Amino acid sequence: MLLDVQNVTKTYPVADSTRPVLDGACLTLGAGETLALTGESGSGKSTLLHLVSALDGFDSGEILLDGMAMSPLSDVQKAALRRGPVALVFQQLNLIPSLTVLQNLAFHARLGGREDPRQIAGLVDRLGLAGLENRYPEQLSGGQQQRVAIGRAIALRPRLLLADEPTGNLDETTSDAVLDLMLDLVRGAGTALFLVTHSPRIAARMDRHLVLKNGRIT
Amino acid sequence: MNARVWIGFWMLLQTTPLAAQGFAGLGADADGFAIPHPGAVLEFPADHGAHPDYRIEWWYLTATLKGDDGDPYGVQWTLFRSALRPDDGTGWQTPQLWMGHAAVTTRDQHHVAERLARGGIGQAGVTASPFAAWIDDWEMKAHPDTGISELTLSARGETFRYELALSAKGPLVLHGDQGYSVKSADGQASYYYSQPAYDVSGTLFLPDGPVEVTGQGWLDREWSTQPLSPDQTGWDWFSLSFDSGARMMGFQLRDSGAGYTSATWIGPDGQSQSFSDGALDVRPLKTERVSGRDIPMRWRVSLPDQGLDVEVAALNLNSWMDTSFPYWEGPVTISGSHSGQGYLEMTGYD
Amino acid sequence: MQLATLVLGLALATGLWSAVQAINTQARENYAEAAERLGINRFATLSSPSGPIAVDTYVRIRRAGWQVSPVLEGRIGLAGRSFTLLGVDVLTYPMEIAPQADEADVSPADVLTAPGRLFAHPDTIRNTEQAALPVPLVTSDRVPRGIVMTDIGTAERLLDRPGQISRMLVLASQPRDLPPLSDIVPTLKLTAPRAGDDLSRLTDSFHLNLTAFGLLSFAVGLFIVHGTAGLAFEQRRGMVRTLRALGVPLGLVMRLLMVELGILALVAGGLGLVLGYVVAAALLPDVAATLRGLYGAPVSGSLRLQPEWFASGIGMSLAGALAAGTHALWQVRRLPILTAPGQHSSGLASETAFRRQAQAGVAMMLFGLSCPWLLGGLVSGFVLLAGLMLGAALMLPLALSRVLSLIENRAQGALAEWFWADLRSQLPGLSLALMALLLALATNIGVGTMVSSFRLTFGGWLDQRLASELYITARSNEEGRRIESWLSDGQADAVLPIRHAETWIVNQPARIYGIVDHATYRDNWPLIASLPSVWDRVADGTGILINEQLARRGDLWPGDSVTPAAGWTMTIAGVYSDYGNPDGQAIVSLPLLLSRFDGVPARQFGVRISPDRAPMLKDALLRNFDLPASAIANQAEIKDRSIAVFEKTFVVTGALNVLTLGVASFAILTSLLTLWTMRLPQLAPLWALGLTRRKLARLELLRSVVLAGVTGLLALPLGLALAWVLLAVINVESFGWRLPMHLFPLDWLRLWLLALCAGAIAAALPARRLNRMPPSALLKVFADER
Ligand SMILES: Nc1ncnc2c1ncn2[C@@H]1O[C@H](COP(=O)(O)OP(=O)(O)OP(=O)(O)O)[C@@H](O)[C@H]1O
Ligand SMILES: [Mg+2]
User: Fold this and answer.
1) Cβ count within 10 A of residue A76
2) Which of A1, B61, B98, B129 is positioned for an S-S bond with B45, CB 3.0–4.6 A?
3) Do B159 and B207 touch, CB atoms closer than 8 A?
4) Where would I find the ABC transporter domain in this sequence (chain A) (predicted)?
């Protein structure tokens, strides 16, 4: 099992409510598998993704990645995790504004020490970014930016790709194209995909579809 | 406060009733200064000179003059001495301070100048024999061996200058009791004598040019340590020369009550008679606004014992002495039972 | 945060500016007051070319009718310090010295008779020192500061000069028909009242220096304000857009923003005034000491608030805010209603802006450089300085950007690549703060170089100039002659008379000295330029030496001819350096001087003797001639005193230096803090991509240090240029001498490290904040509802 989320609870310290966002959430995901998670707005989808990508800590339960428990990891180890087996694509604000498209694409992989120039050159083509390599993010459209973000995550060649509504603010056609590309890439690389979305249409294209409600996953 | 005003203020304290208010203790204790005593005999020429062991002293000359242009003129020349301590001393640190006032009054002008100096360096002083009194270039000087009968007199200000010669036509007059002049019911007193009968001639240099003048002069000499009593607020002093040849010195010291008056009647032959408190009656008839103060400019003066009942009126209302301590001093004309001219000094009108 | 920065920046700028203004106006007021109180500019004076005047002479003048007032002046030691004692005749002195009547606990008898009273301004002698005085003291704010006044009777006793008068004031009002003074006292010299007071003329250059410093501080402050105001408006864009979309007219919005800025400026100006007051109050004692030491100018050590100072502070604050705000408002005006806020984070757009700025900078530099040729004078020197500094500041962003992209191209590794690229992209936001730092650093280098060069040169010059072992000042010419003959009688190796006359050379007051031909001069005198066998020319009476001030002002050099007095022309044989003296000076042979001037005092000598015998000779002189200790100074004392005066001069400069550096690092801090909210979205992705917060924090620190370091390197050439301008242009214009430039690389290193520290300190706070930031806060950046 690549990812095993066991009974995780997470509470944000908010003054008025102590009700946990995640309240015994459980989930498993095998290598190369694709999974869609839906749920009402505010149900805790993003929170779960953040926990899985070791960006934030949780209160109880455990998350195992390739059998390795996350809760005892140090800051440095968690950071290493984010440069290696796990990559996360946000809905927006993914790119580093001071770097060019090419630099952005290669950045994560180089940070993780797994840069492969040939693969990146291929990615540029696959992502339809040819001719835009030396542009800066501000000079790209939203769809183009999102494609760079996905490409950057793929370039890292992670075991697990997490995506939080990666097509949230794109129109339907663009969003379908981006999704196609993403599925294409993860399948080719044997990467598992854990995708959060609101769209049943997108969810339907994944191997599995889970729903988060009242802090639990069903 | 300007140093001059400050020093003037100090002198004022000693010569007017303000002393009584500011320095109440002064009346009781003379701070080592000598005090006038009845029965003392004045000696001349020695007493023409300074008496440093008394607190204050003055050589006070006034003259009523007529110019070759026919106009009346008045001239004042005064040297005050004020001692900080009853000793003499030389150099800058002498306690003897001197102040000179000089003035020329015409019908419509009044020229004033003032000088301050210290005694110890020779800038001001008085010698008895031969007599000389001076401050800076102002000088009242006797011909040798004439006592004070033959004098030359000079002073100079920004706008005026005068050179006069004085010649005495009568004897010295001792006021009060042989020169012991009582100033209040409490017994404050001074030594006081006069030479009231100078013939004067000389030149006044005025902004419009020089004027040759002749007329009558009157020298007052007075020294004391505490001439006023605590409740006295000022005085009105008259020196009157009548066309009859008689003269009268009279003063009133004002206080909260009836005041204190004193007079000396001097016959044409120079024989004098003193009148004590109450014999002389002076009362203001009309006041005028002068330098922001209400000052009597017309007086009724009567000495019934001598059949005197006259009105005294200022020649020039603005005879205001705008000096370190200001007062009114100027020539007057006399009408009524007697006619003539004289000088009037008024202090303490605030 | 912006609010605080804006207010603080403006307050700092106003503070420094008004501190300098406060010092200047205080000093000027004191000069005017002193001149007024001493009657220097109101009354003619009567003095004797041959020394003191006898009291009898005074009485003679008085008895001739002239209204004069005697003054006896001398130096006196009181409570362990040395003062000018002015003895006046309180009966005739035309100015008031006693305090108000109601405060005066002093009677005429106290003042006029022994022991007398001293009068001094409360600033001059403190109450606590009064116990040590020989004569009771009355404090009076009518006495000029730094001077002790008393009655002349007390003065002659304290100074032990009975019967002497230094000079007489001829009072304004004189009686008519007086004989001419020259008939009464033909030997005395009448000097007309001096137009304009000497003190302000002398000290003008000093104050100009201070003002320039104040302006510089203000400029640095303005950089901060400009930056923050811009940012504040940038952040308001959203609001402005919404308001405009709602139909509020643009004019109204602009006016509202301006009013808001105005109110902020007033608040900040007020704070700045308080700050300025504190700074000025702290510095004033040193300034006062400098002015007293250098020019003998009586300046109060304590500060009085003055309306003009107040107005100038608030005015500068408003003007500064306005200048900073208009630019920002201009941008708001051009803001279209609909486009999204641009995240110009790549640094692409800024490149062109930088280039335009740099062009403006070059233009300013050229203008500054052309100024001395076009205008000339001290002002043009300062314009040159301003052009150089501002021009360089404007060129800084481009230069930094170029340097950084150079490094970026060589960077290895993703992180390094990002670091340098990011650094460059951050320049627009930080450039103003960095400009401020550049200016502060360059000023530091420039002024530091000038001061150190000066100190070095001055020290060497003193050694040359003060060659004699003892310097004697006799009380009278007669005493001088006796001492001279006694010394020449085998007591000393050589006696060198120091005799001088006052004259005018090249339309300036100048002092002309006569010297005897002696090896002391030949070996030691600090000549800058000379004809061959210069000393022979002086000795045989064919040559004259002039000081550097005179040479530069009159554009004279050896070989030229000069007219030291009416109808007397001589060839300049040499030019010598003469620091610390604002006036012209010349040297000829003594016989020549004596043949040209009458009544040249013979009271001063230099004595050559082997140094170990000097103290004994001093004792012998004091004993034999019953001289006051102050009459003989030995070389070491004079040197110490002179150097102390010059050290004081630069204390102020040093303090202002440190302050500007402080302001500059504060500017960096405020820029970093205001950029913080924009910075987080740039850093959060990196964190998400696998960098720890600690690492990011360290990079942030490094970023600031690197920027400060590079700026520091760029400041070096600018600082040296500044130093050159100060030494070769400003100094020549304001003091009349040019100083050789010495370089002090160790000082630069120290300063550079200081700049690094400033960068690190400025970044420490944001970095710490980043390091402590909880992950959830970082994640918020990515939250959808942003
Ligand atoms: N940093 C935080 N601090 C406090 N509360 C938070 C924080 N992040 C999220 N929450 C709260 O936790 C709950 C879950 O938030 P989360 O972002 O995981 O929801 P979501 O399912 O992703 O919603 P959406 O579909 O709108 O993205 C919400 O109620 C949110 O307000
Ligand atoms: Mg979400």
Assistant:
1) 11
2) B129
3) yes
4) 3-218
Q: Position A73: which residue type? A: L
Is residue C629 within 8 A of residue C466, CB to CB? The reply is no
- Enumerate the β-bridge partners of residue C644: none
Categorize the per-residue pLDDT at B154 as very low, low, confident or very high, splitting at 50, 70 and 90. very high
Residue A191 has pLDDT above 70, yes or no: yes
Ligand nearest to the CA of C778: 1
Q: How far apart are CA C144 and CA A138, in angstroms?
A: 69
Percent of chain A with pLDDT over 70: 97
> How many other C-beta atoms are found inside a 10 Å radius of the C-beta of residue C142?
16
| Contact across the interface for C116 and B156, Cβ inside 8 Å | no
Q: What is the pLDDT of residue B7?
A: 47
For residue A79, give how far its alpha carbon lies from the nearest alpha carbon of chain C (Å). Answer: 4
SS3 at position B44: coil
Distance CA C221, CA C276 (A): 13
A46 C-beta closer than 6 A to ligand 1: yes
C492-508 pLDDT, tens digit per residue, is 888 888 888 877 787 66
Query: Which of C62, C100, C113 minimises the CB distance to B123?
Result: C62
Name the neighbours of A, counting chains with at least 3 Cβ pairs within 8 A. C
Contact state of C686 with A96 under an 8 Å Cβ cutoff:
yes
Q: In what order do the strands lie in the sheet with A22-29?
A: A22-29, A3-10, A60-65, A68-69
pLDDT digits (tens, 9 = 90+) for B193-206: 999 999 999 999 99
Query: CB of A75 within 8 Å of any CB in chain C?
Result: yes
Instruction: Give chain A's end-to-end CA distance (angstroms, integer).
Output: 19
Which residue, by CA, sits nearest to atom 24 of ligand 1? Answer: A41
| Domain residue ranges of chain B, discontinuous segments joined by + | 45-346
pLDDT in tens, C507-537: 666 788 888 888 888 888 888 888 899 999 9
Query: How far is B4 from C91, CA to CA, in rounded Å?
Result: 6
Cα–Cα distance, B56 to B67 (Å, whole number): 34
Dist. CA C465–CA B60, nearest whole Å? 66
Pair type for strands A160-164 and A86-89? parallel
User: pLDDT of B215-272, one tens digit each?
Assistant: 999 999 999 887 677 778 888 999 999 999 999 999 998 888 888 999 999 999 999 9
CATH classification of the domain holding A15: 3.40.50.300
DSSP class per residue in B139-152: EEEEPTTSTTSEEE
Rounded Cα gap, residues C59 and A107, in angstroms: 100
pLDDT in tens, C376-405: 666 677 778 778 888 888 888 888 888 888
Does ligand 1 lie within 6 Å of residue A184's CB atom? no
What is the separation of C-alpha B137 from the centre of its chain, rounded to a whole number of angstroms? Answer: 20
Q: How far is the CA of A21 from the centre of ligand 1 (A)?
A: 8
Evaluate whether ipTM surpasses 0.85: yes
- Among the listed ranges B170-184, C104-118, C651-665, which one has the minimum average pLDDT value? C651-665
Residue-range definition of the domain harbouring residue A136: 3-217
pLDDT tens for residues B57-100? 999 999 999 999 999 999 999 999 988 888 877 889 898 999 99
Tens-digit pLDDT profile for residues C700-714? 899 889 888 988 898
Enumerate residues 6+ apart whose C-beta is below 8 A from A122. none
Q: Provide the strand spans (E) within C68-211.
A: 68-78, 81-88, 118-120, 137-139, 147-151, 164-165, 167-170, 189-191
When the candidates are 3.40.50.2300, 2.40.370.10, 3.40.47.10, 3.40.190.10, the CATH number that belongs to B45-346 is 2.40.370.10
Determine the pLDDT at residue B172: 94
* Residue whose CB lies within 8 A of the most ligand 1 atoms, among A10, A18, A22, A47, for a mutation test: A47
